């Protein structure tokens, strides 16, 4: 237990020491999205009846910030440790592959929640965004961050260079988040894109998370939660197998 | 007695490249042991397999009786490794680095031991300095400290003195000798053969993934018969009869290699006959370096068999 807690503490300390870049900067960029999109689209888009577009936008942006930062935390920590070579200190220790997995994922969740909470609190000073069901919000926040934290572990282990990790982030994570209904509701899309969106697990995270705010969603939150949980279990299993075999880290 | 390190039939292949070709090795508790060999001989790969950083293709390794794969937790608690590369985590200070490393081993309240290592390795002034700001030699000391943080009975140092200044090198060896006296088993790889000769009781010489010699230094040096003779003559010419014995010429001296001590008589007779003055004469005992060169030069290695699928 102490080994796991130490690694978790180290991962938390790592991003906290550069908190300006890891927590504050993503908060600012998310708030910029909010400012610009709400200014441009407020007049044109009505997602849910009785909900202003800006208010509709807030939960999606909060979730997007959480997902991206959860991914960034584990993936960048691992690739930095791999490239600078200091991953050896963890590999030499008696930490089990499960402890390593849970420490990296938990740290990712904490960073995701820190950024998400920060963004939400700042938006509250400008807009009234109701939070109608805290359990749903928390559940999807935890699940989504954990899933992206685990995907980040996979990316960090797989990538051998920073540009490979950047490619993973730009060609996988970014399209999946942007095309998940952060800025719109899925029924507003043409049928083809609707169908495609339903294949995107990020859509269910955003949709379920939003349900916790407005009690309105495109899909039942139970279905969304089931899908997100299934994805998390599957991705975790894959990640644990990679760590167990020492894929790309114990040659 | 359970060996500190035991390696059986260790093979490692990367594709068609054979890095270890069936290593058998046993290091007894309390030994000061050296792994010697040219670059690419497989020393670091062998160490990495023992440390669990690399997976063997086949074969077993145990540390204090614990298999490094099936009982890796116990095995790793028994082992401290100082890696060859100067690696560090730029996010942390020296003390943070050591406290974290100690925590990875599940140790709590390890502060007094950490302070002791910091003191012994002369890191006290830099304990709260970020790792990035340390010189190479200081980073090397931190690596040693990290390897010792869980008081491992077996300590492996991979080229610990490469690129380290004389003062630090001596301080490091003093400390490691002290650890050895206190009962720690020490295994090191080094390119400085005189270091191995001065410190170690036993050595293994590796070449192309094989152990080609494994013995005490005394026996290895004893196995080389003959000696070298260093001569300064006046006038400065070597009699033709002695030309075939000459192995090199340095700083106005002739170095002759004799297969047996009895050949000295021949040398003296030839010098007397040529009426030469001997200004200087030294008989040189073979040392580990000589043994190393002979073994590495003469040992015939089976050609790696081609891999058939």
Radius of gyration of chain A: 18 Å
Please count the beta strands of chain B (DSSP E, at least 2 residues each). Answer: 14
CATH C-level category of the domain at 5-78 and 152-221 in chain B: Alpha Beta
Biggest sheet overview of chain B: 6 strands, mixed
The proportion of residues in beta strands of chain B is 25-35%
Which stretches of chain A are low in confidence, meaning pLDDT under 50 for 5 or more residues running? none
The radius of gyration computed from the alpha-carbon positions of chain B, rounded to a whole number of angstroms, is 24 Å
Look up the CATH topology of the domain at 5-78 and 152-221 in chain B.
Answer: Rossmann fold
Task: List the secondary-structure elements of chain B in sequence, H or E.
Answer: EEEHEEHEHHHEHEHEEHEEEHEH
The rounded distance between the terminal residues' Cα atoms of chain A is 27 Å
Task: Supply the CATH architecture of the domain at 5-78 and 152-221 in chain B.
Answer: 3-Layer(aba) Sandwich
The protein's oligomeric status is heterodimer
């Amino acid at each position: 237990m102490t080994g796991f807690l130490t690694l978790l503490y180290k991962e938390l300390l790592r991003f906290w020491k550069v908190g300006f870049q890891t927590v504050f900067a993503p908060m600012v960029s998310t708030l910029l999205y909010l400012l610009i999109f709400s200014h441009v689209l407020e007049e044109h888009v009505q997602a849910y009846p009785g909900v202003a577009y800006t208010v509709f936008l807030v939960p999606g942006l909060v979730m997007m910030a959480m997902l991206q930062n959860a991914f960034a935390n584990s993936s960048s920590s691992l690739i930095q440790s791999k490239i600078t070579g200091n991953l050896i200190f963890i590999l030499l220790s008696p930490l089990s592959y499960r402890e390593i997995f849970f420490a990296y994922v938990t740290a990712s969740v904490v960073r995701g929640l820190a950024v998400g909470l920060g963004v939400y609190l700042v938006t509250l000073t400008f807009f009234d965004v109701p939070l109608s069901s805290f359990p749903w919000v928390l559940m999807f926040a935890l699940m989504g961050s954990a899933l992206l934290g685990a995907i980040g572990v996979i990316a960090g282990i797989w990538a051998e260079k920073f540009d490979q990790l950047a490619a993973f982030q730009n060609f996988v994570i970014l399209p999946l988040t942007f095309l998940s209904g952060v800025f719109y509701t899925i029924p507003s899309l043409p049928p083809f894109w609707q169908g495609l969106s339903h294949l995107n697990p990020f859509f269910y995270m955003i949709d379920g998370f939003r349900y916790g705010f407005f009690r309105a969603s495109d899909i039942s939150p139970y279905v969304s939660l089931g899908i997100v949980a299934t994805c998390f279990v599957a991705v975790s299993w894959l990640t644990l197998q990679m760590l167990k075999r020492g894929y790309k880290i114990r040659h | 007695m359970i060996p500190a390190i035991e390696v059986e039939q260790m093979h490692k292949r990367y594709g068609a490249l054979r890095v270890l070709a069936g290593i058998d090795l046993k290091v007894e508790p309390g030994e000061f042991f050296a792994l010697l060999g040219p670059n690419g001989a497989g020393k670091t790969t062998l160490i990495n397999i023992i440390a669990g950083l690399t997976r063997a293709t086949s074969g077993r390794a145990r540390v204090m009786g614990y298999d490094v794969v099936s009982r890796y937790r116990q095995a790793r608690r028994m082992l401290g490794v100082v890696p060859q590369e100067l690696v560090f985590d730029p996010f942390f200070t020296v003390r943070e680095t050591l406290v974290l490393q100690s925590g990875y081993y599940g140790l709590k309240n390890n502060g007094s031991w950490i302070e002791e290592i910091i003191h012994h390795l002369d890191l006290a002034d830099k304990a709260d300095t970020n790792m990035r700001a340390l010189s190479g030699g200081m980073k090397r000391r931190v690596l040693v400290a990290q390897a010792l943080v869980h008081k491992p009975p077996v300590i492996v140092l991979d080229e610990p003195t490469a690129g380290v200044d004389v003062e630090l090198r001596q301080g490091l060896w003093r400390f490691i000798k002290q650890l050895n006296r206190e009962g720690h088993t020490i295994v090191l790889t080094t390119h400085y053969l005189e270091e191995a000769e001065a410190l170690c009781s036993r050595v293994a010489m590796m070449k192309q993934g094989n152990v080609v010699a494994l013995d005490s230094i005394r026996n290895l040096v004893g196995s080389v018969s003959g000696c070298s003779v260093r001569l300064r003559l006046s006038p400065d010419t070597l009699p033709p009869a002695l030309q075939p014995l000459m192995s090199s010429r340095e700083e106005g001296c002739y170095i002759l290699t004799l297969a047996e001590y009895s050949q000295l008589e021949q040398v003296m007779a030839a010098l007397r006959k040529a009426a030469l003055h001997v200004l200087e004469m030294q008989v040189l005992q073979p040392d580990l370096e000589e043994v190393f060169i002979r073994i590495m030069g003469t040992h015939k290695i089976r050609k790696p068999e081609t891999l058939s699928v």
